[in-house]
Specification:
The complex is a heterodimer of chains A (270) and B (118).
Chain A: E1 14-17, E2 20-28, E3 31-32, E4 54-62, H1 65-80, E5 84-90, H2 96-107, E6 113-119, H3 124-130, E7 136-140, H4 149-158, E8 166-170, E9 187-193, H5 200-203, H6 205-210, E10 213-217, H7 229-239, E11 244-247, H8 256-268
Parallel strand pairs in A: 5-8, 5-9, 6-7, 6-8, 9-10, 10-11
Antiparallel strand pairs in A: 1-2, 1-7, 2-3
Helix pairs in contact in A: 1-4
Chain B: H1 2-20, E1 23-33, H2 41-51, E2 61-65, E3 69-73, E4 79-82, E5 97-101, E6 105-114
Parallel strand pairs in B: 1-2
Antiparallel strand pairs in B: 1-6, 3-4, 3-5
Classes of the chains: A alpha/beta (270), B alpha+beta (118).
Chain lengths: 270, 118
């Protein structure tokens, strides 16, 4: 049972806003957190059978069909309103939120920016983003290990997105599951930091295969760690030779101008 | 553990179909999980038994076909089997290989048992 509103939604994602402890919306297909659970509409069929019969029915349906359809709806909405949506993916602690904290102050001088934060629990990241003065919503996935298109669809309804803007979606820190779920973003950005292993692209190839952009973060720490940046890039390129690559330190700002220019060009061209 | 959400999606999809067909229960589900789909079929089967509890698919037998991946060389066009995302063309050694199949994850068909006569 949900301990906030007492409904029976014991699993499933919840939307939260930093600083508003009363705000609490369950992600459900019926829309704005009203707890009408769908399904189980047991329509009776008129025909009766006298003996048990077994039949095979072809489906040929993608298991992710429902997510993919909804992701395309999100994508269509973003395209119609000229919203550039980026899905940020990485393992926990590689600096997704720090990177957003660093780039948003520059970008918001010229463009509207909004953020969707995904974590299993807490509004900590949303609080950090809210301090920058941009609209933010937190998705708490509970036991879930990734964001899906329905969660993003619900979150977008709660955010007042501007036309011609940038939407940053920070996925749950996890290099495995989020790779499978299209959210409707324009591009996927995978972040890896130099405190991880340079063989990560080989260990988690699905994520690097799905990504469009790879950011190597914390490069200010390179002198102190056994991380071969060239090898890491080579490994990533073996998995996905289309990857665009940026070396960055979200802490010192090194490499940031190149990445910012890239985003600004994408936003201007739209 | 995305296999659990996948298992739940499968149960939802097959139950919807089975109800449309007026089935009493689902006895079999045929899946196609490409070797490059990023899904562990053993883990999926494990999750499925939990996900299907109390549904029409509770007793369904999962049959999984796992086709090999195939790649196409971006330089010379040769097609060859690949077992991983980083593949090298056996002819020209190029690493510019496009995965053409092996990433599919489909519910191919279901076998349903009609409801017993009333």
């Amino acid at each position: 049972m949900c301990d906030t509103c007492g409904c029976s939604a014991d699993s499933g994602a919840v939307l939260r806003k930093p600083g508003e402890s009363d705000y609490h919306v369950h992600v459900s297909e019926s829309g704005h957190g009203d707890h009408h659970h769908e399904g189980d509409h047991n329509h009776e069929h008129g025909h009766h059978h006298n003996e048990k019969k077994s039949r095979t029915i072809a489906l040929e349906q993608d298991v992710l069909h429902k997510n993919n359809l909804l992701a395309e709806r999100n994508r269509g909405y973003f395209e119609a309103r000229n919203i550039f949506a980026l899905n940020f993916l990485s393992s926990p602690g590689s600096g997704k939120t720090s990177l957003l904290e660093k780039i948003i102050p520059f970008l918001q001088k010229h463009f509207s920016v909004a953020v969707i934060e995904g974590d299993q629990q807490t509004t900590n990241d949303a609080v950090r983003i809210q301090a920058l003065g941009v609209p933010v919503i937190q998705i708490n996935t509970g036991s879930g290990c990734h964001l899906d298109a329905l969660m993003v669809n619900s979150a977008v309804k709660e955010l007042e997105l501007q036309d011609n803007s940038l939407l940053c979606i920070e996925n749950v820190g996890n290099l495995v599951c989020p790779a499978m779920f299209d959210l409707g973003e324009a591009l996927k950005v995978v972040i890896i930091s130099v405190t991880e292993g340079d063989d990560k692209p080989l260990k988690y190839p699905t994520m690097f295969h799905e990504a469009d952009i790879c950011i190597l973060n914390k490069i200010d720490l390179l002198p102190y760690v056994d991380f071969d940046a060239r090898k890491c890039r080579e490994n990533a390129m073996r998995v996905n030779h289309h990857l665009e690559w940026f070396d960055i330190s979200a802490k010192t700002g090194e490499g940031l101008p190149v990445w910012l220019e890239w985003i600004e060009n994408k936003l201007k061209r739209r | 553990m995305h296999e659990m959400s996948m298992a739940l999606s499968i149960v939802e999809a097959v139950e919807t179909k089975a109800r449309e067909e007026g089935a009493g229960r689902i006895s079999g589900i045929d899946l196609v999980i490409g070797k490059l789909a990023g899904i562990q079929s053993e883990s999926l089967k494990f999750c499925f038994s939990a996900a299907a509890k109390g549904t029409l698919a509770e007793e369904a037998l999962l049959q999984v076909e796992e086709p090999e991946g195939r790649g196409e060389c971006g330089e010379c066009g040769r097609m060859f089997p690949v077992s991983f995302y980083y593949a090298e063309c056996p002819d020209c050694r190029s690493l510019r290989v496009k995965i053409v199949s092996g990433e599919e994850f489909l519910i191919q068909s279901i076998t349903i048992e009609d409801q017993e006569g009333e």
